[in-house]
Amino acid sequence: MSLSRSIAEQMERASWIRRMFEIGARMKAERGVENVFDYTLGNPEVEPPEQVLAALRSAALASPAHSHGYMPNAGFPPVREKIAARLAKATGMPYTADHIIMTVGSAGACNVFLKSVLDPGDEVIVLFPYFPEYRFYVENHGGRMVRVETDERFQMDVGRIADAITPRTKAIILNSPNNPTGAVYSAAALGELNGAIERLDHPVTVISDEPYKAIVFDGVRVPETAAIIGRTVIANSWSKSMAMAGERIGYLAISPRLPEAALLRDACTFTNRILGFINAPAIWQWVVAETGDQTIDAALYQRKRDLVCDALAGFGYQVQRPQGTFYVFPRSPVADDLGFVQRLLEEGILAVPGAGFGRAGYFRLSLTLPVEAIERSLPGFGRAITAVR
């Protein structure tokens, strides 16, 4: 049996994140876990808030009859009502349960929407550096990813986005706070983008992918994209904000300002089923309905950010201090980021080359190590940059 050509090709360019994670697993077996510093995978190392675990125990032991069976493919109506009420409060917009589809994480939300709107050859604009799975999400449904670069501070350039729009453009994916850079897009830039979209002669919808929205630093507030850009759908999850990436629970929120909101809701509910998700996990729908405002303490990651960024800058690295997420995206001290990542391996440090995110000459560090492990790893960064100078 042969693989499909598209899957075979996608596997060839599969995520550097997973590739380095697998290298790390081998190194840990060879060197010992304590001698390997794994900065690869964005897998929160902290536990979910206690209120979330208490709600899980309650849902498992005392949930109403039939609460673990099939429900409408969009999710339990009372759950969607609570999510809609939170969004209405945050955005000032009249979200209702009919605008919410509970999904298998934010990834599921993105795929449900793209399946609903893309015809073969339709285009989706993605800002670079980018979360590399976006390419696969777009290609899953016959679309074509269009690359648009951000500026030297990783902020969006609306002029570049406008220049990239063609009659085949269906959507623009925004990820703020951004993986891998930690950049947060400003309200002014979002407003400028909304103006550019409103001037088009065909509809283009923004997918605001927001799994890191609660993890921000230095008092930064993430603008409500859906309140600023009229044609917006929100893809969100609790994977990062509640430190439960393995539970796969999220939602798609369709803007009440979309003229085709009801039609899109029906389409996305249908695609939620035919993509094989069927529905989001039942027990976690009940949990997030009760505890969806709970988040991990972002101060822990701010401390790690400061520790890493201060140390790297002291060694001579160029590093943009992230505004959010738990990633740092320094510039490689040599143009060959792949080669430099290999040099870091000699120090037992696993990083992901920037080429894997569409921005060669950088590398990404995930701050999901214990503070003690980070502190022990820092001299290795110093030795690595000294060796290549």
Structural notes for this entry:
The structure is a single chain. The model has no long low-confidence stretch (mean pLDDT 94). Helices cover 43% and strands 13% of the residues. It folds into two domains: 5-48 and 296-388, Aspartate Aminotransferase, domain 1; 70-291, Aspartate Aminotransferase, domain 2, CATH 3.40.640.10. The chain contains 14 helices and twelve strands. With 389 residues, the chain is of the alpha/beta class. It is globular and about 60 Å long. Strand 5 (169-175), helix 8 (187-198) and strand 6 (205-209) form a beta-alpha-beta unit. The protein has a seven-stranded mixed beta sheet, sandwiched between helices. The chain has a three-stranded antiparallel beta sheet with strand order 9-12-11. Helix 5 (105-117) packs across helix 10 (261-274) and helix 12 runs parallel beside helix 14 (371-388). It has helices at 5-12, 16-31, 50-62, 77-91, 105-117, 133-140, 158-164, 187-198, 225-228, 261-274, 282-291, 298-315, 337-346, 371-388; strands spanning 37-38, 100-103, 123-128, 144-149, 169-175, 205-209, 232-237, 250-254, 327-328, 349-350, 352-353, 363-366.
